[in-house]
Every structure is written in C-alpha cells, then in structure tokens.
UniProtKB/TrEMBL annotation:
The lineage of its organism: Bacteria, Pseudomonadati, Pseudomonadota, Alphaproteobacteria, Hyphomicrobiales. Belongs to the methylmalonyl-CoA mutase family. This is Protein meaA. GO terms for molecular function: cobalamin binding; metal ion binding; methylmalonyl-CoA mutase activity. Keywords: Cobalamin, Cobalt, Isomerase, Metal-binding. PANTHER family: COENZYME B12-DEPENDENT MUTASE, METHYLMALONYL-COA MUTASE, MITOCHONDRIAL-RELATED. It comes from Vineibacter terrae. Its cofactor is adenosylcob(III)alamin. Residues 532-661 form the B12-binding domain.
Amino acid sequence: MPADNQPTPSIKRDRPWLIRTYSGHSTAKVSNALYRTNLARGQTGLSIAFDLPTQTGYDSDHPLARGEVGKVGVPVSHLGDMLTLLDGIPLDRMNTSMTINAPAAWLLALYIAVAEKQGVARAKLQGTTQNDIIKEYLSRGTYVFPPEPSLRLTSDTIAFTVREVPKWNPMNVCSYHLQEAGATPMQELAYALADAIAVLDTVKARGQVTSEEFPQVVGRISFFCNAGVRFVTELCKMRAFAELWDELTRERYGVTDPKMRLFRYGVQVNSLGLTEQQPENNVYRILLEMLAVVLSKNARARSVQLPAWNEALGLPRPWDQQWSLRLQQIVAHETDLLEFGDIFDGSTEIERKVTELKAETRAELARIDDMGGAIAAVEAGYMKQRLVESNLKRIAAIESGAQTVIGVNAFTEGEPSPLSAGEAAIQTVDAAVEREQIEQLNAWRAQRDARQADAALVALRDAAKEGRNIMEPSIACAHAGVTTGEWGQALREIFGEYRAPTGVGRAAGAGSDRLEPVRREVERVSRKLGRRLKMLVGKPGLDGHSNGAEQIAVRARDCGMEVVYEGIRLTPARIVNAALEEGVHVVGLSILSGSHVPLVGEVMEGMRSSGIADVPVVVGGIIPPEDAAVLLKSGVARVYTPKDFDITAIMRDIVTVVDGAGQKAA
C-alpha cells in the first residue's frame, strides 16, 4: 500500500488544463524566442498578447501608435510579422489563444495564411480568437467600429470557422475584463451571458449558418473568465456559469446534445487585486485565485494563464513568467487534485451560494432583455454606468478599510522586497523598437506587389459593402501583403468609427464624510480662482484601460470640481486643444500601457507651444520609480501609481497643486 502522501499507481488522473502564459512584447522576433523558451519549460499552449496599435487596427507608423509600439504586446503589421512570430512552432500541433477583438477576423486570417505557408490544413488548426467586442465597449476599450458592424464581423468569423476551421473557438466571451472594470460576480455572469446571447442571435439572424450547424456554433463558443481572491465565491460563480449556460443553450436555442452545451472556459486570474505595495504577497493571491477555477472538477477551467507577481510594477521578466508557470505545474502534477471527482458536489453552502448567484443573474438578464438586449444596454450606457458604480464602491471600501488588502490598508509595515529592487526588477522595452518596427514595415510595403495588395483591398471593401463574409477576402489580403492598418482603414471607410459612452456622467458617486474637507478646499480655491476649479482627465494614446481615469473623474466631480472627460484614445494634440478651449486649471493624464514618458512629453510640449505651460499636469499609471523621476524632472507636478489607492487623498493633493500654481501665477 502506498503512503497517503504518495501517488497511487492504479488511480487514473485527469488530464491537466492547458498551461499558458500571456506574453509578447517588443518585436515578433523577440516574442518568438520567448514562446519557444516557455514551451520548452513545459507551457502547453500559446497565449499571444498583441500591442495596442495591432489591437486597434493601426500600423506601427500611425500617429496614434506613437509610444505604444511593442509595449503591452507584440506588433503584427503584416504576414511577415506573423511568420516571424510563429517561426518554428508547428501549428498543426499547437493550441493558440490570440487576445484580439475588433481586428480578430484579420489576425485569424494572418494565422491561417501562416498555416497555409507551413502546409497545414485549416481543419487541423486549434485555438481561440477572443473576438468579444461588446465587453470592449464596457471595459478594455479596444473597439473600433460601431456595435452592429462589429457584431457582423464576429458573426462572419464564427460562420467561417464552423465549416473551415472546425476545431477553432471563433470567440471567447470575455468576462475577465468586466471584473477588471469592477464587475461583481453577478454582473460578470449577467453581462457575459447577455453578450453571448447578442452574438448567437446575430449569427442566427445573419443566416450564414444552417439550423443543423447551429449547435456546432454553440459548442465552439468558449468563455474567458476572471477569478478574484474571494475564492469560494469565485468557485461558486464558475459553477453558476456552467449551470446557467447549460440552461440558456437548452431553453433559448434548443440545443439537445449535452456536449454542445458544455461551458468551456479559460481563465486568467485577477490582475486588479495585485498590489504595488509588498508585491511578493501577490504570489499567494494568484495561487488562491487559481484554486477557484481548478478545484471544482465540474466547473474546471480548460486553460489557465496566471499573471506574474510583479505586474503592478511593470512588464514581467521571463523569470517572473517562469515562476507563474511553475505554480501551475506544481498544482497540476505534484498535488492529488486531478485524482478525484468534484469535491464540492453535495455541499449545502456551495449550493446555496450558486443558487443565489443564479437568481440574481437571471433578474439582471431580464432587465437587459427588457432594454432590448446587450447592444441597447451598451448604447444607453446602462452596463458601463453599473460597472463604474461597482468600481466606485470597491475603491471606497478599500479607502475606508471595510475591505482589507494586506500591505495596502492593513499590516503596511514590512521589510523592503529584495525581489523588486534595482533597475532590472521589471522588463523594459527599448525605445529603439518602435523605430526598427517602422523601418521593417516600410521595407515590407516597398517589396510587396502593390497592385496585388490594392486589388485585395478592393475585394475586401466590396465584401463589406455587399454584406458578404469577409474572412476569405481577409485571407487573400494577408497573402497579398496587406497591412493591419490598411485592413483596418478599409473597414473604417465602410463601417465608420465609434466612441462608447463613458458611464461617468450618470454614475452615482460613493458618498463619504471624508469628502467634506476636500469639498471645502475646492470651494476655497475656486473663490480664489474666480470660478469653479476645472480639471481635464485625459487618456492619450491607445490605452483603453479607463477604470482609473473614470474613478478620478467621478471623484473629482463629487468633490465639487468641474470635470472634462472625453473617454479613451485621444491624441496629445486633442488633449492640449481641450485644455486650451475649456480653460482648465489642471490636466490629469492616465496611461497604463508603459508609454507614459513619450506621451506625457508630447502633451507638455503642446501645452508650452499653446501658451498654457502654467497649467499643472499630474499623471497616473503603472510607472516605475525611474520613469516617475524623469516625469517629475520634465515638469510634471505629481505622479500617482497603484500604491496611491486613496483617491480622496489624491483629490486633496490635486487641489493643493492647483492652489500652488495659482499663487505662483499671481
């Protein structure tokens, strides 16, 4: 008999989930080396992070791409980049997840073109394109087109893959970013399911899929979820997800095959809760969050990717990613987790919480349905407003101490972390990467057959105008050497662009007695200024993570300031123009993509040229200490990072900055 701490040879273990790390930066060549290294270390699937220009359908030389190239992912501007990115990786044996939404059809087209270059049949390809545009309007912000044509593009990829690439997941409904935007477990359930309903209804309405094929479509829809540190609640959320999806697909869509109704999901655990303070504690948070999605066999994730412990500080190094990879491997291979059935079946506590979450979710889904569905709720600003309000409550709870975060608002005294010391504590992207990428892009354009590329773009536009499926024309564009920006611009010309509601205007602020002293200060300084203190909150560049900017805008309003906030994806010139026209007293810039130094510099140079250099600038984001020093030396009045969790204290500080600037000007 083996000892209890030894594996039993006769017990059959379940196969582990796909083990991934979400990665990519700098260039396709650098990222390819990283992928090969991670695969050699035991990673079992690829998860590709694309940079913001690629995610928003721009080439690396577009004005909005300045400072963003290669920062939060890999730039892929054409087939040559994709060939380099996947060099030496056999696509017939690889399961690849691509986090891409508005241009998902294009990146899938490039992936298929690479496979065809490798001699791999489309039918052998396995993987996922995220392709969830609705949550982009609510959270991540990398949308391009209005909702209706965006859903059409998603529907086109689904209809194409069900026949041509049947092992591919053409969409994963992404509730991950909903939680990052502040969603409660109920909101994550309800908004993700409302999103899936909108997509499946669009697929049916488009008529490209037969009724016989439709269950296959349902069976290929996957989800990409989040799990926070309250792991019992999160575990119950995942069980509720599985039961609600089974119910929805059976009752609404009449899918009779239980296999087609399975809730299939991958997960990256919560990054929102990672702390800059005592960052080594994040390792424990990540482990607990992972348990929420692997402990319950009946609701176990199909794939897991974990953030690195230091992602609140900046881009993780290969060693940091290896540490996250080893955590997964220890749970999968050293523990006995995979030797048992579902250890929560029959638990009255688990069942009670699952039942509660399901009831709350059904009620919220009914509200959204009464509004006309997810798209109507997006366009009305309802879901975005609810997310902003939930995030306000979360932050207020941390500020007040009602929600404990170790190292942040409790047990804050501690030793400095040797893991995060020194300039090499995080990965940095060389500024020369952008120049090199643009040079290679120009060389690509120069060597291709321009007439063939132009003809492919004409065919793409025609398909878009005529309502035909755009996948085959997109694959033809890939082979013809068309670039990401050209593909994006061709469809922008047909579909137009879109700016989603910010949710800030009608969001109910979190009332607090702590605001009263700040309100009195705002009144005092406003009287000195001769009018209401006015703040511009701006997001230069392509960073769509607007949560922080939204919270600052709402709190500034609640403190009595007049606030100008136009949402995401603004050029530095537009921010400067708004500051000039609105006559603001302070400019607050929010940048989380790592491009803070060039973008802030461009804004400040524009302000100097426009004669408003006396208006103070404050900056917030994931900003390493060395970069903070650079910004302060350049004239930035304040730099706020994730350690500055007390937004009311930030407001008090901003009022002090404006008061000091006014006295200096006088």
